[in-house]
């Protein structure tokens, strides 16, 4: 979608930074203060949630509603149906709750703005690293205000790729085929994908990410020319009214088309029918 097709909420990276920066800083500081001091509850789906998840969700939803009343909100901890409005926020207030609850300093706040179901703003706030990555459709992406370039990645045995927990099964399904590089598993879908965009990893294979896990990172990867390959259903454009709490979007992200081909066998193994 060209920038000229966007309506009232379209802003530049610098404008979004001014508008939302203080809010995301506030939430990040609260999360850092709570880190290591909270216990977690178990949700119906077996995942964890803390009081900090709930507070972060409530604070972000309140502020986004006030600053952009024309946009609906879809949140992991709140409304799971894509709102009917042309503009909709997609929010994961604390992606990596298991890490957060277990004292592992690796998590993110993931925020995306969709226009007619397509991400036009992607924002990843990474409190433990004090990093902020913002992308606007057609404008590229920045890290802490500095413009990011497309990753220049080459397959070497010492390079790294990431697998999520549930995609580790591909190593058994292709046990006769050596994996082409080193493996890393960080436990945060948005940051696994971001690692490809930043040139930290060559590829990322995600088995069961939800739309709030991937919406922000998706646009960041697109703006940096990376490859995003849905392995089943494509997440975008999302349709108003879609109930997304139980819908997953297996995908392969790669720094370029050559690397996509290199990791394609493991992506195929993830979704291949098992006899």
From TrEMBL:
<feature type="binding site">
    <location>
        <position position="94"/>
    </location>
    <ligand>
        <name>Mg(2+)</name>
    </ligand>
</feature>
<dbReference type="Pfam" id="PF00459">
    <property type="entry name" value="Inositol_P"/>
</dbReference>
<dbReference type="GO" id="GO:0008934">
    <property type="term" value="F:inositol monophosphate 1-phosphatase activity"/>
</dbReference>
<feature type="binding site">
    <location>
        <position position="76"/>
    </location>
    <ligand>
        <name>Mg(2+)</name>
    </ligand>
</feature>
<dbReference type="GO" id="GO:0046872">
    <property type="term" value="F:metal ion binding"/>
</dbReference>
<protein>
    <submittedName>
        <fullName>Inositol phosphatase</fullName>
    </submittedName>
</protein>
<feature type="binding site">
    <location>
        <position position="213"/>
    </location>
    <ligand>
        <name>Mg(2+)</name>
    </ligand>
</feature>
<keyword id="KW-0479">Metal-binding</keyword>
<keyword id="KW-0460">Magnesium</keyword>
<feature type="binding site">
    <location>
        <position position="92"/>
    </location>
    <ligand>
        <name>Mg(2+)</name>
    </ligand>
</feature>
<feature type="binding site">
    <location>
        <position position="95"/>
    </location>
    <ligand>
        <name>Mg(2+)</name>
    </ligand>
</feature>
<dbReference type="GO" id="GO:0006020">
    <property type="term" value="P:inositol metabolic process"/>
</dbReference>
<dbReference type="GO" id="GO:0007165">
    <property type="term" value="P:signal transduction"/>
</dbReference>
<dbReference type="InterPro" id="IPR000760">
    <property type="entry name" value="Inositol_monophosphatase-like"/>
</dbReference>
């Amino acid at each position: 979608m060209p920038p000229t097709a966007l309506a009232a909420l379209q802003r530049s990276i610098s404008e979004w930074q001014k508008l939302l920066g203080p809010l995301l800083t506030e939430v990040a500081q609260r999360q850092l203060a709570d880190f290591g001091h909270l216990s977690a509850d178990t949700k119906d789906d077996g995942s964890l949630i803390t009081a900090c998840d709930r507070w972060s969700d409530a604070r972000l939803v309140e502020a986004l509603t006030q600053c952009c009343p024309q946009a609906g909100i879809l949140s992991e901890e709140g409304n799971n149906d894509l709102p009917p409005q042309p503009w909709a926020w997609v929010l994961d207030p604390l992606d990596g709750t298991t890490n957060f609850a277990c004292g592992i300093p690796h998590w993110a706040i993931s925020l995306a703005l969709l226009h007619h179901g397509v991400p036009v703003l992607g924002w990843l706030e990474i409190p433990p690293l004090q990093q902020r990555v913002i992308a606007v459709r057609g404008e590229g992406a920045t890290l802490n205000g500095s413009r990011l370039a497309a990753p220049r990645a080459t397959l070497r045995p010492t390079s790294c790729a990431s697998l999520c927990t549930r995609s580790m099964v591909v190593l058994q399904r292709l046990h006769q085929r050596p994996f082409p590089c080193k493996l890393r598993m960080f436990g945060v879908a948005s940051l696994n994908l971001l690692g490809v965009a930043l040139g930290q990893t060559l590829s990322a294979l995600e088995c069961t990410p939800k739309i709030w896990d991937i919406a922000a990172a998706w646009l960041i990867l697109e703006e940096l020319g990376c490859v995003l390959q849905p392995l089943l259903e494509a997440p975008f454009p999302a349709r108003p009214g879609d109930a997304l709490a139980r819908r997953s979007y297996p995908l392969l992200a790669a720094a370029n088309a050559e690397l996509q081909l290199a990791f394609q066998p493991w992506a195929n193994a993830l979704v291949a029918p098992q006899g």
